[in-house]
Amino acid sequence: MPSTVYKGDLAEVSFAPETGMRIRVGPATDGSTDVGLTVITSDNITILAFKAEVNTTLFQAAITFTDATCDTNHSSGLSDGTTTSVKHITMDSTALVRVGMVVTGTGIGANSIVTKINSATVITVSVATTATNANQTLTFSATNLKYPKNMLVGSQLVWTAPGGSGADDVVSNDLASKGRIFTIVENNGCSLQITPAMETPDMVTMGDDNVFEILPYKTPPMDIAMAQATVAEPGTESVKTDQFLGIATAITLPETKVDLKRFHVIGLGRDVSVQVPGKLTNEGGSFEVAMHSARWLKYCLGHELLSKLQTSLASDVTTAASLVLASASFAGQSHIVLNANNAQVAVGTYIEIEDTGDVPISSDHEPETNSAEWDGTLTDFDFDLAHKNEIRRVIGVSEHTSDHVVYLDEPLSYPHVADKVVKIRIIGDSDTNPVAIGTDNTITDSVSHLLFSRSTQPSFALEVSQRRRDVDSNAGSTDGGVNDTKELTRVFRGCKVTDFTMTTDNDAALRLSVNFNAALCYTDTGRLEATPLTRYGSHRMFDDTANTEVKRLQSGIGKSTQKPFMFYNGSITLAGQQVAQVLNFSLTGQTGMQALHTINGQFQSASASTDQVPFAGARNASIMVEGQTSYEMTMEIAVDDPLFYHKMRTGTEFSVHGENNSTTNQIRIIFEKNKIGSTNPLHTEKMVLLIDDYYIIEAPLQIPEDKGVVKSTLKIMPKAIKVLARDTIAKY
User: Fold this and answer.
1) For 603-670, where are the alpha helices, taking DSSP H only?
2) Strands of 204-205's sheet in order across
3) FRET partner for 164 with CA separation of 20 to 30 A, picked from 37, 209, 215, 716?
4) What is the DSSP string of 103-134?
5) CA 385 remoteness from chain centre
6) Cα–Cα distance between 595 and 645 in angstroms, integer?
7) Integer Cα distance of 517 and 627 in angstroms
8) Strands (E), 488-579
9) In which residue ranges of the chain is pLDDT below 50?
10) Backbone phi and psi for residue 56, each to the nearest 5 degrees, phi listed first
11) CA of 40: how far to CAs of 73, 193, 198, 483, in Å?
12) What is the pLDDT of residue 152?
């Protein structure tokens, strides 16, 4: 008997790093633009209406329908119940109409676009009607950006400098050089609505080579396979939040709360007189995973670099293609431009930028003279620098032939000059492909990661679906029918880690507890709408997203890699000596993350149950800013030597790069899984935590009440930590 209530075993959780999106606008159809665009301004809102799609990677081909019940009056106008206008059109139902749609037909002015849905029967268009008709057949068409309805609400947008001589001068006042940042308050496929209003004149069709960027924070990666609903077919809306959270033993979702303001008014008695909703918060998220990889330490610390792709691999497909960056890329950029359109660069593959430029790993000191660079192995423990080798998942490839744009699942952390070599990692289940697991369960081509803390932390989007029945939900299900799961899907956007704890003891797996907050929560409300056009297609990890060996590898949990690191896989070196009697240890970190609500003059939509993000995100946190980091480590040991007590009482500073510098001072916590099918060390999964600078501030030596083993819980204060990891996950 199917369940009639929501159940925890019928819930799915997945995630993805957030990323930005660049879109080039203009009327050109020669491959120099992505889409046509008309700017429409009303009050403090600017509508960016898409038309004349050029790049089908980012945009869905035009959706068209007709309506034979349309009335116009170009002389006296029509009323919407509050105002009368010659720009009004009345019809039996506006359920299928969206702001930004192009309207054509008898009595409709040229370049007419829907600017407002006034009611269930009235719309407003951008150009005055030219005739008076009753029950006229009009055509409505939409060129849709491949994001679910209102998934981008709260994301920010900037105009960048024009890319060529054809750039429109009218947009100059809205360019990034003017410092203008816009907030998206609505997206419905065929248009974006932004605030404050652009200075670009109303009803301008932009020329070639104008570019806007949707900024990464609060923006999930695009799923180019999604489609908006048509009259005949339901939508398959989704974003690319398809990554495995981990072996989660517990999870608490961010709690959406309304900060209600209550006022007692003098003279009106003792009871509350006025209640006004204030800011919305999405705080208190947490989860605990048994660590089968170091993946989540990237989101706790901030930065990830990797060793370069082994050139000896037979599948080093990019050598023959000679792929390089056609132009310089910059930190924070969510795309790259290649010199050629290689067929191997496809959605789902990984591109690696090989850059021998050095970046410092520590922020508390300058790299020492002749400082060593990380050699890419997990046995190199003493280094101050590392190469800027970055890897990103490909979420889209432009179809343009004039330039070869590759869209990335996460912004670049560092700038790279033109002509840097770009290589491809292909995820597969064959020994001939990088990052693969052979038929004998041997990890044939592992990836080595370096994780460390600097000035920023990546944000991520967390997708959660809860349902009543163990069947897929889709927009075509009849409400209340046999295939209706009454599924609730939410996407928590703008998530950042606030603190974490990694711990293990002598009877358990290595565990990581992560606390995080979200900026806002997108909720699929398709089933609440009169015409459910926006039913979200959630990711069911092991039924759909990761239902094959290759797909599981792509999602971050490959065959034979799902087992966690156990206590017996670990070893700890402290102050130059391997500690053999460690009973347990715990490492905690604070990121100093702060969520800020800002006074930004953002337009607020009316609150309704069908709003995917209520109030257009105006009451949600605008930004989340990193603060001071702090780390603390405790380690319980069975005492066989008072060495650590003496080090504590004399206030010894342990440092690899200080006055009493020595590599033997370094804390090394090493976990390595049992070898699978091979004795080659490169075929094992391994994680190394390195602490270069620290003090031992507590080392108690009490006589136990049971007169048994003397134990001491060391308290250690590190400056920073860095992590080396080797596994099958191409990118964290």
Assistant:
1) 643-649
2) 21-25, 210-214, 156-160, 182-187, 191-195, 45-51, 36-42, 204-205
3) 215
4) EESTT--TT-BEEEE-SSSEEEESS---S-EE
5) 27
6) 41
7) 14
8) 488-505, 511-518, 520-523, 570-574, 577-578
9) 1, 163-167, 311-320, 431-432, 475
10) -75, -10
11) 22, 9, 9, 42
12) 96
Q: Are 450 and 380 in contact (CB under 8 A)?
A: no
**Token output for 476:** 């075509």
d(CA 23, CA 215): 11
Encoded tokens for 672:
């390595």
Q: Within the chain, how many helices (H) and strands (E) appear?
A: 4, 46
Reduced 3-state DSSP string for 590-613: ECCCEEECCCCCCCCCCCCCCCCC
For residues 88 and 72, give the distance between their C-alpha atoms in angstroms, rounded to a whole number: 7
Q: Nearest to residue 206, comparing CAs of 317, 388, 46, 323? A: 46
Quote the pLDDT of residue 29. 59
DSSP assignment of 327-343 equals S-B-TT--EEEESS--T
Residue 690 amino acid letter: L
Parallel, antiparallel, or unpaired: how do β-strands 335-338 and 156-160 relate?
unpaired
- Tokens representing 505 are 């003891």
Reading the block at residue 66, the tokens are 């007709």
Degrees, nearest 5: CA angle 289-630-566: 30
285-307 exposure pattern, b = at least 16 Cβ within 10 A, e = fewer: bbbbbbbbbbbbbbbbbbbbbbb
Torsion of CA 141, 74, 81, 68, to 10 degrees: -40
Alpha carbon distance 410, 310 (integer Å): 23
Rounded to the nearest 10°, the torsion over CA 217, 218, 224, 230 is -150
**Cα separation, 436 vs 607, whole angstroms:** 49
Q: What is the pTM of this model?
A: 0.92
Residues with Cβ within 8 Å of 240's Cβ and at least 6 positions away in sequence, in order, are 16, 220, 221, 222, 223, 395, 409
> Is residue 485 a contact partner of residue 469, using CB atoms and an 8 Å limit?
yes
* Assigned token pair, 143: 């060129």
Residue 205: what pLDDT? 73
Under 8 Å between Cβ of 24 and 33:
yes
Return the residue matching tokens 């300058």: 366
Token pair for 523: 């909720």
Six-digit token string for 547: 């239902």
Q: Which residue has the tokens 């989101």?
A: 299
**Residues in the chain, total:** 732
Amino acid 411: pLDDT = 96
At 214 the three-state DSSP class reads: strand
Nearest CA among 168, 268, 250 for reference residue 212? 168
Token readout for 652 is 């010894």
Q: Any idea what DSSP says for residue 35?
A: B
Q: How crowded is the C-beta side of 529, counted as CA atoms within 13 Å? A: 19
CA distances from residue 64 to 38, 101, 119, 288 in whole angstroms, order as listed: 18, 9, 21, 47
DSSP β-bridge partners for residue 680? none
Query: What distance in Å separates the CA atoms of residue 552 and residue 189, rounded to the nearest whole number?
Result: 31
- Residue 425 has a pLDDT of 80
Give how far Cα 190 sits from Cα of 50, 63, 233, 323, Å.
5, 9, 17, 34
| Amino acid code (one letter) for 274 | V
Rounded to 5 degrees, φ, ψ at 664 are -75, -15
Stretch (H or E) spanning 553: helix 549-555
Q: How far apart are CA 164 and CA 39, in angstroms?
A: 20
- Give the type of residue at 107: G
- In angstroms and rounded to an integer, the radius of gyration of the C-alpha atoms of the chain is 28
How many whole angstroms separate alpha carbon 44 and alpha carbon 643?
69
